[in-house]
Design goal:
There is one protein chain. Helices cover 27% and strands 19% of the residues. The chain has 16 helices and 26 strands. β14 (447-456) and β15 form a beta hairpin. α4 packs parallel to α6 (148-162).
Amino acid sequence: MNPFVLIAAMGALVLMTVASAFAGEFPAETWPVHTPEQAGLDSSALHKIAEYLGGRGFIARDGFQVFTWGDADRPGDVASAAKPFYSFFLLKALQDGLIPSLDQPVVEWEPRLAEIPHGEEITWRHLANQISCYGVEEAPGTAFDYNDWQMALFWDCLFRKVYGATLQNVDEKIFHPGLTDVIGCQDSPSMLAFGPDDRAGRLSISPRDFARFGLLFMHEGAWRGKSLLKPELARMAVTQPLPLSIPRASGGAASMIEGQRSIGSRSIPDNQCDHEGCYSWLWWLNGVGRDGKLRWPDAPVDVFTALGHENGMRGMAVLPSLGIVMSWNDTRLGEMPSHPHPLNEPLRLLVQATGLSPREANVMTSKPSSVNVAMAQIVCLDGDREGNFARIEHAIHEASQAGAQIVCFPETALLGWVNPDAHDRADPIPGPSSDRLCDLAKRYSVYLCVGLAEKDGDALYDSAILIDDRGRILSKHRKMNILNELMKPSYVPGREIVAVDTPLGRIGMLICADTFVDGNLARMAAQKPDLVLVPYGWAAPEEKWPGHGKELEKTVVNAAKRIGAPVVGTDVVGAISHGPWTGWVYGGQSIAASRDGKVLGVAADRDRDVKIITIYF
């Protein structure tokens, strides 16, 4: 719950019953009304929004209607702003067991996809992020193609096949009982804006009903005590922008199934826009684009929107940190220049209405609610720096395609852990090896945590670096508990334990045996991290595996509980080739644990694996 809603709810609980307190967070049959000033908003700024946009619109704060203009109760087509409703029903189908996985091939529901190139590879995840490349030459998952033929395929497969609706009964059978009746829509929304025979799936909804849908996602899928979507699914929908490493489709037209309809555009190939690092499960976020700038620089970073037609002239925006939902239709946005994006101005005015500056608003949203972390459990061969670099890049590519924001690699992933050759071959940090890793982070637009040997003068350190998605080294950790009996000359122990603030939260690093020492865990806990990343080289004689993986699990779980933060431990796959442990096996089984010690995911036993874990803060 955002802070404004929490304050309103706490005050209500003092004065009223629990049942009536909900009126301050959710509308019932009608919206409760506050004046802008009662809601802590400057009405003059809201009037400027209405003058700027034109058309008709609705603004709510903390569950209260605070401002309207035009016919806010009149339903109308919202064009592509309907798409988040499609992803809602996809995630609901997953939650309800109607589909087994977001990665299920859609050909299992539409067999004719097997008749076209790459058709059998298209998954629900691809369709719901517009990376299926349906109708263009690229392979699914390799490019972004904003495509209305694809959206019609998605809608038909989901509503007509998974849910079993017809074009005549989709509202009565699915849309109303599954969503709009539950959230109390007042103005007869419909999935058939133009009737069953004209672009079925186009949504007709009023601005005031659209705001209810936004409020549902502000409350992470909950409505008046009922969970329509699990919180983790609702959060995922509005926090997983496509990485910039996924390009806009550039190929020509490709085959579609016979009789394929479009839900809007008739262009072939259809390729309307780039995602600009801002597209998440059919929602548009305030992400950082290819120019390195926020999409809406004067809006809070947690804004998520549903946008239709040019510049989002029909749509809805949610500002969770401010407790505000705004929806609109028939505005002048489509007549305005696209750069800078004209929606920035009404969002700026909303922030101004609260009395905050954009910078002050963003202080409230400096940490996301979740982050996608990939445990990149790769095979590392001692001394094979070039081969290990290749395996690192392959894993980064795979992780970024799957939506990872942070990719974590094992200990000393370039030259091997117990490898005295590192005294002669290791680089300083920064240096040639770390520069190459920085280039990979920037190219794939991900954060990297990588363990590598570091030469500093005559000293050799077992180090790890954290690199941001622009290729900058944010932090370096030198292993402290070095087990110096395993290599001569040994590594030099590090001294410092730090965590650094990033847009993805406050991140700390330790390395393998550092997590054996309670004092190290206590020092990290004092840094108050949101997330701790730990490269491991977890080895044992061959006959000890796979059981030795349970010891790694105990170690990571203990670290998470003692630090009070999620811990992601990435192990290596391979074998030790030097020293007293020669022949011992690194067995993988990388593990992530929550702050309370719950196991969030375990990677493969003695095999390469790139496993994505969503960490919730």
